[in-house]
Here is the input.
Amino acid sequence: MDGHREFASDCAILLREQLAKAPIARRRFLRICAYLGISPLMFKLTPAAAQSRELVLVNFGGDAIAAMNKAFVERFVRDNPNIKVAIDGAGPSSGKIKAMVESGRTTWDVCDRNLPASIELGTQTLLEKIDYGVVDKTKVRPEHVGEWGVGSYIYSNVLTYDTKAFSGRKPTTWKDFWNVKDFPGKRTLRKHIDGQLEAALLADGVAPKDIYPIDVKRALDKIKEIKPHTIFWGAAAESQQMFRNREVVMGGLFSTRASVAKRESNGEVDFTFNQGSVWVGAWIVPKGTQNRAEAMKFIASTQDPHGQVELLRLLGNGPVNPEAAKLVPAEFRSIDPGQPENYAVQIPANAAWYARNSAAALNQYLEAVSS
Here is the structure.
């Protein structure tokens, strides 16, 4: 192990020397770093390399790499043959972006995050502002337009249930979820606040229009009521597996997981968008990228509704452009959180509230569900 570390360090030195002598394509550079197990943050690109017309798109890996390549990258490269795009699945965490920007070595151009993160990072001057002279505000809903981020796709936290558990009755609200007398059995909720606090307040009688700003204490008190009947999931796969194993009769799941559970169970597991918490993925651009103009051009290209429908087909993420709704095939409309009839009955997450309060609220939530 130590020998390999020394070898990799020596290779890093050689690579740094190579960068000092001549430019190297950014895609090749990232592949070399991945092969050696070293971080690209160790290097400061030469001006010639940094100005290479090759974008680095960063997401959280897995199936998202192939899906975004098919839905967005192939189309963009075809229309812009002088620009190449490399997808890095390393995961654009806030810590990584902060370290990269503050080091003056920005090697990422476009990142897949969300609007709360765009506000959090943007207010720390770690992001470029979205150029709405290039990116079209009218191709997303007003609540998905941010100063440092713009909507890229949508997904939801939805009430999911076993259709055979309640003698034909269907839970349709979070009050039903909390009603263990009429809907007995184990439940599952996420071990994170996103969507769970909203569900608790709705169960406690708060009107959708009054959810924000979230009364965290009230929400946590309600969570504690259901806690004895609840298993809290960490990885999304766990939530789906609990339904497979019939460990739970109801749950708060990502709409993507709920739709797969419905399909694989032939409808024995179902879900409703009613009172769902709808979230938006967002494109952000790290401060200091040498490809800012190309990054904005790429983001604008992803607003094409056809590509967004393709992402729904491949990954289950709903189109953020309302114009895409009419292009969604009939068999996908029931799982698309952005369909007008589905979006209308949900509550859009308040990005500004989460940007200000999520860290403190999450700590309180984890303490409440763990103690």
